[in-house]
């Protein structure tokens, strides 16, 4: 956990240890990044208001070289901050004060997603020039590989496995994130990031379609 408030950092580390986790803390982004580089953790918790390198830049630096699940824990609950953190590469966002039971439920869901095994017999899914290979964990557009995060890939696969069918935000939260309820902005931000990667231009017919009041669908 990267958190500059000693009281919060220590209390959460101790609470997580009580829940059976091996947890450590760092007071600055610089120390947290070094610790993750030298002794990689399964999940990184990041505060946004950090001295020196702030939480947003910390997430970006982590994401450049590491696909580790990242959870933001911050007192900042403004939509702009939440969207900015998710766009920087965070997988989830919790607002302080955090209930330990909710945090551990989110951590379990993140680890389940990280361990999901794709069946060998799943075929390549094609949507025009877009190809999704669940077995290889790859996305290609016009034959060129598209870099996507684990969460983006799982979201795209979920939509691709139900072509033309509308899936609600709550359905996607449950199937991709493993959450029974949650902040629907998680879905909206990841859909927006996927659109930037798999759609060529504003003039191209949209592949990832918003159905107002219902949810999203992937169409050919």
UniProtKB/TrEMBL annotation:
DNA-binding region, as residue ranges, is located at 122-220
Q: Which UniProt keywords apply?
A: DNA-binding, Phosphoprotein, Transcription, Transcription regulation, Two-component regulatory system
Q: Modified residue 4-aspartylphosphate is at which positions?
A: 47
Entry keyword DNA-binding: yes
Which SMART domains does this entry report, sorted A to Z? Answer: REC, Trans_reg_C
Q: Which residues form the OmpR/PhoB-type domain?
A: 122-220
GO MF, one example:
phosphorelay response regulator activity
Q: What's the protein here called?
A: DNA-binding response regulator
Q: Which organism is it from?
A: Winogradskya consettensis
């Amino acid at each position: 956990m990267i958190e500059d408030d000693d009281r919060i950092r220590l209390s959460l580390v101790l609470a997580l240890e009580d829940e059976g986790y091996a947890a450590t803390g760092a007071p600055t982004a610089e120390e947290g990044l070094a610790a993750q580089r030298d002794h990689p953790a399964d999940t990184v918790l990041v505060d946004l208001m950090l001295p020196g390198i702030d939480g947003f830049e910390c997430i970006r630096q982590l994401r450049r070289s590491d696909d580790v699940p990242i959870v933001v824990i911050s007192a900042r609950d403004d939509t702009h901050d939440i969207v900015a953190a998710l766009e920087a590469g965070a997988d989830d966002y919790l607002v302080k004060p955090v209930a330990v039971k909710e945090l551990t439920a989110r951590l379990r869901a993140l680890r389940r997603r990280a361990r999901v095994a794709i069946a060998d017999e799943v075929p390549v899914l094609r949507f025009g020039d877009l190809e999704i290979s669940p077995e290889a964990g790859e996305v290609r557009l016009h034959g060129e590989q598209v870099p996507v995060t684990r969460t983006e890939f799982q979201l795209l696969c979920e939509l691709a496995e139900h072509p033309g069918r509308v899936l609600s935000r709550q359905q996607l939260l449950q199937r991709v994130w493993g959450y029974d309820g949650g902040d629907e902005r998680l879905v909206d931000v990841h859909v927006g990031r996927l659109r930037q990667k798999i759609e060529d231009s504003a003039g191209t017919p949209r592949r990832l379609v918003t159905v107002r009041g219902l949810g999203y669908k992937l169409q050919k």
